[in-house]
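Box S1 | Example of a co-folding query
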Amino acid sequence: MENQGRNPPKRLVLIPGPFQGHLTPMLQLATILKSKDFSITIAHTQFNSPDFSAHPDLTFLCIPDGLSEQEVQSPDVVAIVLRLNDNCESSFRECLTRGTNHMEPGDKICCIIYDPLVYFSGAVACDLKIPSIALYTNSAAYIAVRPILLQLKAQGHILVPDTMLQVPVPLHQPLRFKDLPIYSYGSLDSFLEGLALTLNIRPSSAIIFNTIHCLEESPLARVHHQYHVPIFPIGPLHKFAPTSAVSLLQEDTGCIPWLDKQTHNSVIYVSLGSVAHMNQDQLSEMAWGLANSKEPFLWVIRSGSNPGAEWIEAMDENFKECVKDRGCIVKWAPQKEVLAHDAVGGFWSHCGWNSTLESICEGVPMICQPCFGDQKVNARYLTHEWRVGLELEGEIERGTVERAVRTLMKEKEGEEMRQRVFDLKHKFDVSTGDGGSSCHYLSELVELLRSF
Ligand code: UDX
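Box S1 (continued) | Returned holo structure for uridine-5'-diphosphate-xylopyranose
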C-alpha cells in the first residue's frame, strides 16, 4: 500500500459495459487501481452483473436497468445497449445524488471511469461536474476508424457499396472499406444511431486504452487528434492484474488435463468469443474442417451459441467417431491458461480485442475469422500489419478450414507467423516491464487521478 493510511483513499466509480469482453478489462483496471490505493466502486447494470464475491476488496453498486426478461434474452445486442443507456441514466444519477447502501449522498467521487458503450455514465458525470475518463476496451485502430461509418451514412450509403469493398480506407492502412466495423447482429440503423451517440460523448479528462503504444502508435495518434485529451495506453491489462477473476460463465478446467497429454505446439485452440452465434451448417463445416486437418483441437462452443440447439447434441455422430480423443469440446475454457499451455500452437479466433491481446501475450499465432464489428478491424491488422495471423474470409467451408489449420500448424508460413508473434510478445514484455511504455502511462494515469 502506497498511501500508508495518511489520507483516506480517493474514491473512483468504474462503470463497465455489460458484456464479457468489456467487463473483463474494466475489472482488471479496478484491480490495478485498487492496488494503487484508490477506493473502487463498480457501478454495474443488473444485466450481466459481475460476480462480486470474487472481488471482496471492491464495492459494487447495482444500477436498476429496467430490462424485461424478453429483452435480456434477445440476441440483438445493439438494441440491448440502446435500451440500457435510455433506462440507466436517471437511475445512475439518482444512485450518485441520493446515496445508496455503499455511498452516502455527497460522498466525494474523484473520477468516473466508464466504458463508452454505457455512455449514459459519461452524461451523468458531465451533469454532476465529476471528472470522467473513458476506458476503451477495443483497439485504437477500431476507435480511430469509426467516424468513417458516419461519413458514409451522411453521403447516403446504408451499406458500403460493392465497388468500394476492396478500396483502401484513406489514412487508415491496412484497412479496406470491407473491414469497416459494421455490427451485424440487429438493425444497421440502430447500430449507426448508437455509434453517433457514442461518438458524441467527449470524456472530460482523458482516454484509457487497453493497448500498447508500440503496437498501435499511429491509430493512437489519430485518436488523440480526434479527441484532444491525454491518452493512456496501459495494456494489456491482464498482465498487470493476472489474478482478477472475471468470467461470467463457468470455466471448464477439464480441458487442462487433456492438454497435458498433447505434445508441444500441437493443438489448435478454437473460440469465437462470448457473443458470436453460429448456425448448424457453419458448425458442421468448422467440425469437418478440423476433423479433416488431422490436428488435435480444443474447441469452445458456448451453450446456446447455435440458436437451433442447446449444445452439440445435433453434431454429426460420424464426426465424433472420426476425431475421438483428438478433439476436446467445452462450453467455456480458462482461455488465458489455455493459451499459455505448452501444447497450444495456434488460435482460431474471432479476433475480439481481449483474445487478440491474450494470444499475442502468449506468442500464439492465429487463424482470423472475424464475425462482426471491431473484430474485422483487428483481423486485418493481425493478418496484414503485424502479420501474425492467417485470414479466413467469406463463408466457412471445410476445405478452407482444413487448409488454414494445416498451414498454421504445420507449414513454413505458420512457422514464420509463430516467429513474428514471438517477437511481438517480447515487445509486450518490455512494454509491461519496469520502465516500459505501459508502466509509464499507468504511473501518469495514477498521478492524474490523484490530482482530482
Ligand atoms: C466482444 C466483441 O465481440 C469484441 O470484438 C470486443 O473487442 C469486446 O467485446 P468477445 O466476443 O467477448 O468481445 O471477445 P473478446 O474481446 O476476445 O473477449 C472474450 C473474453 O472471454 C477473453 O478475455 C477470453 O479470455 C474470455 N474467454 C473466451 C474465456 O475466458 N473462455 C472462453 O472459453 C472464451
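Residues 235 and 277 are 28 Å apart (CA to CA). The mean pLDDT is 91.
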